Amino acid sequence: MVMSKPSFGGLACRYLALCLVALCVMTCPAAAEDQGSSPELLIRNVRLVDFAADEPRIRDDHSVLVRDGRIVAVAPTDQLAADAGTEILEGNGRTLLPGLTDMHVHLWDEAELGAYLASGVTTVRNMSGMPYLLEMRDRIADGQLAGPRILTTGPILNSRGPNAQLNHQIVETAEEAKAAVRGQFEQGYRRIKVYSNLNRAAYEAILAEARALNMPITGHTPEGRRIEGMPEQLPFDIAFDEILDDGFESIEHVESIVWHGLRNRHDATRGRALARRIAAANVAVDPTLVAFANLMRIAETRGAHLRRQGAEMLNPFVRSMETEQSERWTNEDASRAGDDLAFYLEFTRMLADEGVRIVAGSDAGIATNIPGISLHDEFDLLLAAGLTPAQVLQAATTNAARVVGQRQEFGQIEPGQRADLLLVKGDPLDRIESLRHPQVVIAGGRVFDEQAVEALWRSAKQTDAGRTARNVLQAMEVQGTRVDLGH
């Protein structure tokens, strides 16, 4: 049983109908308000926790000086004094750690930004690029909009087949694939996301052009054309192991790895061998366990999970597109889904044990994965898989920075790093759930105290289906999406 993304292709009419009844553009007061920081900020008397190496680095009774959105000094509290005019944030012995990174999200609207920040997520890697996201990214970087720093791929590149969707950029030939990569680069994207239906000619051309433009590739491992009998009776056209030396920034979804790399077999012996090969290839993995777990819980609760607390922050436009999938999972075999999840947890533990670099992603914005909250749900599942709290925190901080090639930019508490920081009560190395409710969030030096964090939560509920519809249709027009989903 492999998780499926929302089926945009079969719902194009509903897609257009929503646009015709688009609501007036709503603002996001808390998300858009300028929460700007003072020229200098001194965070006093905190317990620092980060991962300069594989083991946690803990420094008690320290202070951190921030200027212009960057950390400029880290020292014992009695060695770091504030100048006149410096804003002082008293830590009172609480824990300060780097902001979290969600390595797999789907951003649809400004409203979602508040949920990420309020959850302590200060960087996101968006995995389905659209033009409005480039503008949103730049507005955040310029301080015009409060939100996590956005890294984004371009539009998903795929070929025709069972997993093709209306918002994918469909490429069938090497020439089309090369032009698509070049076009995304010219639009301002610097990452490529590939998908499972890509045929060999298109995928190889994408790979070559991306290398020429120094654009990292991430996503699902391409399988080639799928024909009847795959994968149970016939191997995939493109073997999983062929992908391992292709330089993926990360491979997404353990269920996709099990599907492609193990031909959907829950075989622990072969799973262990596959984990070793992935480790030997030095390829990072983003398990996104929560994405499948949420589908399983829909089945377990016969749909009640779709209405759980926080679901109001899911984008209504996207939810309307997923009615068919929600109904399917409401009637799915929960026992079978539970068996699948159990193996995905086991395989994730194998990956960690064999030394694969794990990063943390939630697939938030898709299906019933709530922005911000779902990353913490992913943490719980990684713990259930057997990772330690330290390994989970490392996955969401320094591992993420390493994988995207920005270890000097974020993920640690060091001079020169972005001031993306969380102040929490308690010890997340002992009780990781303390991260669910940070008392202070600092994003690029901008301070969000407890009142501001509450305002961010309120803004996250002000979703706008009409605005999202306009954003997505504009994206389809710009990229010239080929609405050709023949299987």
From TrEMBL:
Pfam families: Amidohydro_1. InterPro entries: Amidohydro-rel (IPR006680), Metal-dep_hydrolase_composite (IPR011059), Metal_Hydrolase (IPR032466), Metallo-dep_Hydrolase (IPR051781). This is Amidohydrolase family protein. Gene3D superfamilies: Amidohydrolase, Urease, subunit C, domain 1. The keyword Hydrolase does not apply. Residues 1-32 form the signal peptide. Keywords: Signal. One of its GO terms (molecular function) is hydrolase activity, acting on carbon-nitrogen (but not peptide) bonds. Residues 95-446 form the Amidohydrolase-related domain. The keyword Signal applies.
